[in-house]
Write a structure and sequence with these properties.
The chain has a domain of 229 residues: TIM Barrel. Helix content is 37%, strand content 12%. The chain has eleven helices and nine strands. Strands 1, 2, 3, 4, 5, 6, 7, 8 and 9 form a nine-stranded parallel beta sheet that branches.
């Protein structure tokens, strides 16, 4: 009996050992609990851009809408104003599609177009004279200045404009990209550089672009937008308005713009997108050098119409001694200028940058002030 009990106990012990071993083996061979897969971030689709805007008064701006859309999408992200900037933010009340009021932060890539605002010109020679393209003596020839607005948005056509025989005056949009590079190319081709500042048109549904000057803004925000625009490029001679058929009729608003130009020694070219602009009158009251546009070359963007306006420019120059014509980087405008520009000298005209006509205007005003007539 003792032997049987001992064998039974050994059998039970062996069975228990086998059971424990099986459990341990099952635990060892059991697969690890799978971890949750990482959730990849999904880029949300971009919100739709503003619808293409229509023409401002006296200007065919329909073709510019895709360029405004592209430039708006490429604008640097908004950032906070400098700590020493006392100007507070203000709501944007008039143009719903304008970007946040804060100025763009410095671009992430090393890009030379985000320069500091121009410092006030020192006593003596104003900035517009220092930055002006040199002009040889005129010998009494009628002067014609060709200004090309909206530069910098359509990079291909802007570059094509810079291949035209000059001198031309190139007015770059405040919100275009790579402005330092583009303006340097323009200077290298012998052209003069201006700044094209977006301003409010009469039509409320027309979007003049980011950081536009709008009559509904308070003075602090309006001044901030002007300073932002003036800080976008360097080495330029003056400013003219992009659209602005409503804003340039506002004397208080124009006074804020012109005060900043006066402090920096820059001139104002009134694009005259409305016959009721107060730009020139206000500039002269404030002592800001200024001139006005005479001809728009491409209200109708066809070769015959541009050619007709160039002929009209010649007529104005013969009559008044000077003429300022404004065009845009359109195919018809570029093609007609490429044919017309080489013929100007043979017709007795002197092609000049706008600063030469501003200098003539200032000399005449000084003469009148000195002689009384």
């Amino acid at each position: 009996m003792a032997g049987k009990g001992k064998r039974r106990w050994q059998l039970w012990a062996s069975a228990a050992a086998l059971a424990v071993g099986a459990c341990l083996l099952a635990v060892i061979l059991m697969p690890a609990t799978p971890s949750r897969p990482e959730t990849k971030s999904v880029s949300l689709p971009r919100p739709p851009q503003p619808a293409p805007h229509q023409a401002d008064q006296h200007r065919g701006e329909d073709a510019l809408a895709p360029l405004i859309e592209q430039a708006t999408s490429e604008m640097p992200p908004a950032g906070k104003p400098a700590e020493n900037d006392p100007e507070a933010m203000a709501p944007q009340t008039e143009i719903a599609s304008l970007p946040p009021a804060e100025p763009p932060a410095a671009p992430a890539r090393s890009e030379p177009n985000a320069v500091a605002p121009l410092l006030p010109a020192p006593h003596g020679e104003p900035a517009w004279r220092r930055n002006a393209l040199p002009t040889a003596p005129l010998n009494g020839q009628p002067m014609i200045a060709i200004v090309i607005d909206d530069m910098g948005l359509d990079r291909k056509r802007s570059a094509e404009v810079m291949t035209l025989p000059g001198p031309l005056t190139l007015s770059f949009m405040t919100y275009a990209e790579d402005l330092a590079k583009q303006t340097a190319t323009g200077r290298a081709h012998g052209d003069e550089i201006m700044l094209h500042m977006p301003m409010e048109p009469q039509a409320r549904h027309v979007d003049p672009g980011p950081n536009a000057l709008v009559t509904g803004l308070d003075d602090t925000e309006l001044r901030r937008r002007v300073i932002w625009g003036l800080g976008r490029i360097d080495g330029f001679v003056g400013v003219n308005n992009h659209m602005g058929s409503k804003f340039t009729e506002s004397q208080p608003g124009m006074a804020i713009v012109l005060d900043q130009l006066r402090a920096r020694g820059l001139f104002f070219l009134d694009s005259r997108t409305t016959p009721h602009s107060v730009g020139l009158a206000t500039a002269r009251q404030m002592g800001v050098a200024s001139v006005g546009r005479d001809i728009f070359l491409d209200n109708f963007m066809t070769n015959p119409e541009v050619a007709r306006e160039l002929a009209q420019t010649e007529a104005v120059a013969r009559k008044n001694g000077v003429a300022i014509a404004i065009g845009h980087p359109h195919d018809a405008t570029i093609a007609e200028l490429r044919q017309w520009l080489p013929t100007a000298a043979a017709k007795g005209f002197r092609l000049v940058p706008v600063s030469a006509i501003v200098a003539r205007e200032q000399a005449q005003l000084a003469h009148v002030a000195k002689t009384g007539g």
